[in-house]
């Protein structure tokens, strides 16, 4: 479990990026921080692996304050996926994925074998192993980023807008694959996005973040959609948007789901 206990972060120039924030990420669950730009999501995420240290308050992993841990070892024990992929451009795919296992002491052949297995895990062909990142599509690069983060079998995965830079169709399939992967791997995932639909698709629990990391609401996707705590959340989630107000229509004996404007979006299965 990851626990944020009254955490504040003040950068050098003044107003707090994050002010007195407390929440937990239960083990084996996916918690998604969603909020507008500059609300402090990345700051919160980076406090888990000590890329940022809190000005006050504590971040605990399984009851241990992360500031008592060696930052380098801590970072090697936590998977981290960034929007840009963060792959080393002059290393091949397999080398990129093998980095952390190597740093953790695996022999070169073992680390390579592990990296190839990770390619299978994230649904990439082993033929891509010797390519360089620039020779991959955006979606493939993000899969490699996920493979690299998982390569040392960390308990915790931090994901900062990992699918933000790919087109909507690839993004959907990456989200779907992450959910499938999570079903079997059961990692503790803290995921940051500004896209509420991505949060609804991925989260066991969503935390809607307002300015300065203030938590506007925490709940399951269903709770957030059906019982927004206040006007800010309702507006952010877009509870009144036509695609959130689904209706049923009958089309020659088949129940068709339409949005509020009557546009068909699917059929109902019972
Ligand atoms: N290294 C830094 N030095 C000074 N201010 C910073 C630094 N990093 C972030 N900030 C400020 O802290 C606030 C929160 O930034 P943060 O990146 O955590 O927000 P975010 O919610 O992740 O935003 P985005 O969705 O745009 O990535 C912003 O006002 C930002 O300008």
From TrEMBL:
Under Pfam families, the record lists: ABC_tran
Give the family per the record. Answer: Belongs to the ABC transporter superfamily.
Gene3D superfamilies, sorted: P-loop containing nucleotide triphosphate hydrolases
Q: Which GO terms describe its molecular function?
A: ABC-type quaternary ammonium compound transporting activity; ATP binding; ATP hydrolysis activity
SMART domains from the xrefs? AAA
In the UniProt record, does the keyword Iron-sulfur occur?
Answer: no
Q: Which residues form the ABC transporter domain?
A: 2-237
Query: What is the protein's name according to its record?
Result: ABC-type quaternary amine transporter
Q: What class of enzyme is it?
A: translocase
Upper taxonomic classification of the species?
Answer: Bacteria, Bacillati, Actinomycetota, Actinomycetes, Micrococcales
């Amino acid at each position: 479990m990851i626990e944020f206990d009254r955490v504040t972060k003040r950068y050098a120039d003044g107003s707090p990026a994050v002010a007195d924030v407390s929440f937990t990420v239960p083990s084996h669950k996916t918690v998604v921080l969603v909020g507008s730009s500059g609300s402090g999501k990345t700051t919160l995420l980076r406090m888990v692996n000590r890329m940022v240290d809190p000005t006050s308050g504590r971040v605990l992993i399984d009851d241990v304050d992360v500031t008592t841990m060696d930052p380098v070892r801590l970072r090697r024990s936590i998977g981290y996926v960034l929007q840009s992929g963060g792959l080393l451009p002059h290393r091949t795919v397999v080398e990129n994925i093998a980095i952390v296992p190597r740093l953790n002491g695996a022999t070169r052949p073992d680390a390579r074998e592990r990296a190839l297995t990770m390619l299978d895990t994230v649904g990439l062909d082993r033929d891509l192993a010797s390519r360089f990142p620039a020779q991959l599509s955006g979606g493939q690069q993000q899969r490699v980023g996920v493979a690299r983060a998982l390569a040392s079998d960390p308990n915790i995965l931090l994901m900062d807008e990992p699918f933000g830079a790919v087109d909507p169709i690839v993004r959907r399939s990456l989200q779907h694959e992450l959910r499938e992967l999570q079903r079997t791997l059961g990692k503790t995932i803290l995921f940051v996005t500004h896209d509420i639909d991505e949060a609804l698709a991925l989260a066991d629990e969503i935390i809607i973040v307002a300015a300065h990391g203030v938590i506007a609401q925490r709940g399951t996707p269903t709770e957030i959609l059906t019982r927004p705590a206040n006007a800010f959340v309702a507006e952010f989630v877009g509870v009144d948007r036509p695609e959130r107000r689904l209706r049923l229509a009958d089309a020659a004996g088949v129940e068709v789901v339409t949005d509020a404007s009557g546009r068909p979006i699917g059929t109902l299965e019972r």
